[in-house]
Amino acid sequence: MPNTPWSATSQNLGQDFHNWSGGLRFRPSRLEVPEDEETVVALVRAAARQGRSIRPVGSAHSSSEIYVTDDILVSMAHICGLREHDAQHHRATVGAGSQLTELSKELQAAGMTLSNFGDVATQTVGGAIGTGTHGSGRDFPNLSMMLVGGRLVTAGGEIRTFDVEEEPDFVQALRVSFGTLGILTWTTLKLEPLHDLHRQEWCLAFESCMEVLDKLSRENRNFDFYWYPRSDEVKIRCLNPPGEEKDYGAFARLAKDETGPPHEVIPQHSDLPHRFEEMEYSMPAEAGPECLGKLRARIKERWRRSVGWRLLFRYIKADDSWLSEAYGRNSVSISLHQNATLPYWDFFLDLERIMRDHGGRPHWAKKHSLRAAELRPLYPMWDRFLALRQEMDPGGRFLTRYLRGLFGC
């Protein structure tokens, strides 16, 4: 069975479904893994007739409750792979259930690659687009921006085709909508010609990194870093075309050096050895260093003994996706982590206040405490999105209790 963590194509679960970290456990009435788009249409139409809700799920890597349901859960795992491609214009139509690592192997054979990846590549195409998954680099927006067309099953059980050139507003709304405007089946993506990247990781003191942070972020194609609370050191990760890398040996120690195609060298290893919970906020890029400094001080003061997990600091280019955390502004994202077997909410909530004070917007797929009243002021297109969502799904077919709390409906 391709690209799915589940053992059956359609079943009454009768047991808890859990996400990657194990932190989310819920019991859908039914899990459906349709073989084709026509079956998705039939499922949505049946749900409408029966007054039931239906929620899409990708690889279940998200730690927020956006796919938690006690009704129908549907995976696109069988609607996957490369359907067609245009090597001249670097576009490809792929199944929304395609897992990024596996899809990248097919794209590699076709001479193309995604321009960027997140910290892992276990997500599906639909999940990565729908939640605003991103990597790092001042010139790279989140992965949703690669969506330029495709096919969507609407709440009425109809197939809607879309193209960014013909419906720019609709695509801007759809890109980060976590399955609340419809269920993506096939997606057309804007890609890059296949190329290699040279990845180098350097270890250095926190203060040394911050002194040259702006320079580091601007002279590398991809740049981010981890801060380790107990050692107070950082590990910077720099990726560049071979021959364009920089030498930081004067103030840092080289810890890793490898070259390969983007899908092999940008993400961490997919089989992460430790499960963790995560909170992430993105703030204006100029506010990132100050926010990190305050987070560092608070962690050293209150949390260093109980939380030894690293913080991840990344850059995201501004975009025009209505509910993107980088909508209208170049951004910095800061991710907090804690071992999934240990308490985490008090830690997250304490530091969440600091990130909100710096204009932070939450990552939809990560832990956060905000609901509609707090979210609305953060997104200039919030009301337009809700109006479109109501127009497309007046019966709330794609909503759950959690999503109603997010949207205030």
TrEMBL record:
<dbReference type="InterPro" id="IPR006094">
    <property type="entry name" value="Oxid_FAD_bind_N"/>
</dbReference>
<protein>
    <submittedName>
        <fullName>FAD-binding protein</fullName>
    </submittedName>
</protein>
<dbReference type="InterPro" id="IPR016167">
    <property type="entry name" value="FAD-bd_PCMH_sub1"/>
</dbReference>
<keyword id="KW-0560">Oxidoreductase</keyword>
<keyword id="KW-0285">Flavoprotein</keyword>
<dbReference type="InterPro" id="IPR036318">
    <property type="entry name" value="FAD-bd_PCMH-like_sf"/>
</dbReference>
<dbReference type="InterPro" id="IPR016169">
    <property type="entry name" value="FAD-bd_PCMH_sub2"/>
</dbReference>
<dbReference type="InterPro" id="IPR016171">
    <property type="entry name" value="Vanillyl_alc_oxidase_C-sub2"/>
</dbReference>
<dbReference type="InterPro" id="IPR016166">
    <property type="entry name" value="FAD-bd_PCMH"/>
</dbReference>
<dbReference type="InterPro" id="IPR010031">
    <property type="entry name" value="FAD_lactone_oxidase-like"/>
</dbReference>
<keyword id="KW-0614">Plasmid</keyword>
<dbReference type="InterPro" id="IPR007173">
    <property type="entry name" value="ALO_C"/>
</dbReference>
<dbReference type="Pfam" id="PF04030">
    <property type="entry name" value="ALO"/>
</dbReference>
<keyword id="KW-0274">FAD</keyword>
<feature type="domain" description="FAD-binding PCMH-type">
    <location>
        <begin position="24"/>
        <end position="194"/>
    </location>
</feature>
<dbReference type="Pfam" id="PF01565">
    <property type="entry name" value="FAD_binding_4"/>
</dbReference>
